[in-house]
Amino acid sequence: MKKIEMRSTEILKKYNIFPKKSLGQNFLVNDEILDKIASFIDLENQNIIEIWPWYWALTEKILSKNPKSIELVELDKKMVEILELRIKNRELKISSNINFNIHNIDVLKFNPNLEDYIVVANIPYYITSPILNHFLYNLPHRPKEMIILMQKDVADKIIKKQKDKTSVLSLVVDFMCEEISEITKVGASNFIPPPKVESMVLYFKVRKDINNEIIKDFLEIIKIWFSEKRKKLISNLSKKFDKNKLSEIFENLEFNPNTRAEDINLNNWIRLTELIKK
Fold this sequence. Notes:
Layout (H helix, E strand, L loop, with lengths): L1 H13 L12 E2 L2 H9 L7 E5 L5 H7 L5 E5 L3 H12 L10 E5 L14 E5 L5 H11 L6 E7 H7 L9 H9 E10 L4 E2 L6 E8 L5 H14 L7 H5 L5 H10 L13 H12 L1
Parallel strand pairs: 2-3, 2-5, 3-4, 5-6
Antiparallel strand pairs: 1-8, 6-9, 7-9
Helix pairs in contact: 2-3, 5-7, 7-8, 8-11
């Protein structure tokens, strides 16, 4: 184990790589966890998009699984230069059968030219929600699966550790995914530098059978629902929809008039959306 971890730190040392606080960089250097991420699902002959590969330890693991293609999306130009140097130095073995591309671009501006792909990401904590929204809602072609390392507190919200409370993030992710599961927890000591929080890797299987109009309605309404969380749900909704109609719907769904947005589960959100838009 120590030998593998040393190899990761040697890469950082050899190329004089230092994490940039401004970009939220914390480098995962535990190869056992990297192996677990790359091995959780079968990546052979799959199209892979890796977001923010940083010093490419995970990229190496993915390449060893013989994917059909791999698209690296890296914002840090310095990292891209080092990656190209590592390729030149033959430290990264890229089979001629693999379509390999590097995109030096903000991931929120990246629109993959693929209809069938898997997202793998070790992303900065501050951009977790925007990235999930980007791939689940903003793109014409959504990924079929995602494996994402994120802050544990955010992951807990997504998998609803507090069973009686929902959030905008947990709802928008749950609505778009037929399966969400925990792969592994990751302690702070597995990173350079260690973050101040714990991390978790989640797996997402994305739904493909959702009508785009329903998606639009759902997203519009939950944003209204959570606009002022301290207010009663019916008060928030009445800013845009007829209050008498809402009262009838609430009665039909057996909602208490004092119900707040965080108290309603996904199935009731969907039913409520359908009735409001009817």
